[in-house]
Design brief:
By secondary structure, this protein is mainly alpha-helical. 64% of the residues lie in helices and 5% in strands.
């Protein structure tokens, strides 16, 4: 493996890993300024993929490099769409929840905070929040993998 190929894979892995904080801290996306800031940063990261494609620094098949480098941008858009849709459909604001393990007994359910924003919900709608959490985590992942598979099937 050459040094350029190693750098390529480092960029790809970093772009993939950047999706995790976006999904985990989706509470931060409720703040419009922070959402726009994240959107700009993730778009610039996606532009790295265009540069990689134009300079023929691509060790993947077809445009998969673009999908992976734009995946933080895509994840932001999908998470925001899920937030808007769930609020319009259910007339309730969704909050992510997490299970905190306990030393003895059943895991305790808590509302997940973002990095900068504290979660202001309550656990009255725990069932709805659990569905919301699953949906906001699974939707971007399924969408990105579907794009990667479609590109591989149609361009390779």
């Amino acid at each position: 493996m050459e040094l350029l190929e190693m750098y390529f894979w480092m960029v790809i892995i970093i772009c993939g890993i950047l999706n995790l904080p976006i999904i985990i801290s989706s509470e931060d996306l409720k703040d419009k300024k922070r959402y726009e800031k994240y959107l700009k940063i993730s778009f610039v990261i996606g532009l790295i993929g265009i540069v990689m494609l134009l300079t023929d620094w691509n060790f993947l098949c077809g445009y998969q490099c673009l999908v992976i480098t734009f995946s933080p941008f895509i994840t932001l858009l999908i998470c925001k769409a899920v937030m808007i849709l769930s609020k319009k459909i259910t007339k309730k604001e969704g909050f992510q929840i997490s299970k905190q393990p306990q030393t003895f007994g059943v895991a305790k359910t808590e509302l997940s905070d973002g990095f900068y924003q504290e979660n202001k919900g309550d656990l009255n709608y725990e069932n709805y929040y659990s569905w919301y959490t699953v949906f906001i985590i699974v939707t971007p992942v399924i969408f990105s993998f579907t794009l990667l598979i479609l590109i591989k099937e149609n361009t390779c």
